Amino acid sequence: MNIVPEVALAAIGVSIFKPYFDQANELVNYTFIDEIFHVNQVKEYWNGNFDSWDPKITTPPGLYYLAVWWLRLTGLELSIANLRLLNFVGGVLLIITTLVVKKYHNPGLSALSLFSSPLLTIYYSLFYTDIWSTLLVVQSYVVTACWKPTLTSAATSCLIGSISLLFRQTNIVWLAFALAVIVDKLAKDNYRNILQYDMGVFVRKAFANWRIVTPYAMVLIAFINFVISNGGITMGDKENHVIKQLDGTIHHIRDLCGSHCRPDSIVRAAVFHSTTVVLETPSSASGRPFSVTIGIRVSMELLVVKVSIPSLFQLRV
What we know:
It contains 14 helices and two strands, in the order ααααααααααααβααβ. It is mostly helical. It has one domain (about 5-315). The protein has a two-stranded antiparallel ribbon. The radius of gyration is 20 Å and the shape is globular.
């Protein structure tokens, strides 16, 4: 496959978006909404105050450590524009990740399929956790989906997924999904398209390949310990980030899935063993940041299963 046209397309896409990035930084040259917490935390770390923590921040400090490393490596001054540039670079790396999948696994994939997602592009011009959280989760998933199911691929995927937890702790959901993909690839040849039987096959394969499952189990145990010791999944400002049942969200998910996915895909998504991955030309809209948060974003972000992921792969029954 000739990847040169896709590289050219990626370059055009970045060159088109870069002026928007520059203009956004020119017009919004101040901390925007939650940026005030993120930027101030980077300033603390930049000054060596690693014990300082703003209780209003609800996510782990991965982005702030990365930002300090980024500024010191590049020699850039600490400014809002340079911190936002880090996220723009993350978007470019997302394109590169997509190109790798296109070249070796899915020729029908567009280089800009994830980069140009309307639900993601706004964060290239803001210093939020979404971009790097998305990038790391995508890379963790790509390893499980594209590599053979071995201890090496499981450990690599788990390592990348664990790093993503330092940006968004709710990425534990996608780490569990990556594990399901690996086990499903091991079990798929024994399926009979009978739900209860195939669920049994899946569970037996998981126990039979316990070495592959072990890295994920260790991270899960560590995460459970974190939730217990932290008194919840939210790191700070727990009073304003309480898990509640949002009945309206179910209707949002229904409507959005119905508008972006083929009808049969919605049915297939409900089948337990539909996590087997095969490569196919993408047939749905481009994706959403791979991070599950609590509240209003849930209705959009759960679409990853049937919108973002099919942009790289197609779920199979």
